[in-house]
Write a structure and sequence with these properties.
CATH class of the largest domain: Alpha Beta
Distance between the termini: 16 Å
Strand content: 15-25%
Number of strands: 16
Mean pLDDT: 87
Shape: elongated
Helix content: 25-40%
Low-confidence stretches: 15-25
Radius of gyration: 29 Å
Number of domains: 3
Amino acid sequence: MEREMKSIFEQLLSLYERSEIHTNVPLEDFTTEVFAGVVGSNQAIIDGFVNNVLHIPGVNFQVVTQNFYPLADEINCRVDMVFYSESRICFLENKVDTTEHTGQLKRYEKVLSQLKDQGKYSEIYLRYCTKNIEDVNQQFYIDFKTLRWKDIYQYLLSYNEDSLVHAFLLFLERTKLVKDGQLNHTDLLVMTHMQQTLQKLGELMEPVSLEFHKRFGDATVKPGNQGVKEIADFNRFILYRKKAFGTGNSEIMAGFTFEENGGPGLFVQLWGNRNNSKYEEYQQHIVEREATFDRVIETDYGLKARNTVPLEDVMNQSNPSQWMHRWFCEQLDRVEDFLLETSNLDWNVRISRKVVAQQDEKTLLLQLGSGRGQILDLHSQIVNPAMNIDAILKFGYWEDCVNEYDCEELLKGIKQISNKYA
């Protein structure tokens, strides 16, 4: 089983997430504390940051975080970061995936103005840091500027040899707080063919979507409505079923990935988050079947098990589309087998089954939504692994059903025999 390598700050964040005390992780607060520790570790770094990023002159700045400045009408006025020297003070509010709370920046302006009126500082500044460009449609009467996390990232690159700074830069990259906004010639070439490529991907995913539906019902997210977002955020073009089992995050996913080491590829994946009520049972089932998957990857957030094939290998086939369809069917069948064998995970996916033939009243042939078949032996109270239904019909004498059966009732208390396809 693989384990994804994390930067030291990602590991600390993961520990914080799993703490029994902190059930909801304020990423903004965590990132702010880490950033304060990084810039505060070196006087040259903090002074350079204040001068070149916050655009405030002076030297010998210090930084504190989460400082309270109670106001008469707001006793819970807390500032993310405060940079100060003997004569200057700056409030820096950081945002990650949220926007300004109503009136938040105006309250900070009021506090800063009071500090100046009280003669504590001769120069006051207010700064606002966000991940994306945000229009702050307000008028301020003190020195106010906005910046982005990528500005902080660009500044710290000059100190990349410092191990602490390097770890923080990795953290900003991995948490997607910074993105390279510069266009190059490769980007222009991609944009020229973007629509055509997306249309091709959509067409290739249509039969996959149909096969997915046969086995697991409607996908929660389909390529048509979230394709571009999935490519931009996760480097993939997919369909998937959310909350597949238990309570909490889990997924069945299929599609194209562009992040494999060998280049773009096809993949089918199971995912279970640590917050899922059935995570431990899911983890045990995956470990028992690890040889079934190309990759089983444990992260601090959960466990994913996937099968992949490089797209280049697909294109080298004599009939790539047909080969691709067959590959997806085989991998989705494996996921379907996994569902059939792990009923203790409380799947929120109902696999369609109906009785289509019988040898006698106790030996029945079930047909799955995928078209495969299973032999249900009520004598032994077992149901055999799914296989090609034509192969079952070929070996054995089968008759049409004389009765109607309720499969859910028939399968109560029935043991599913494991399919050892690994």
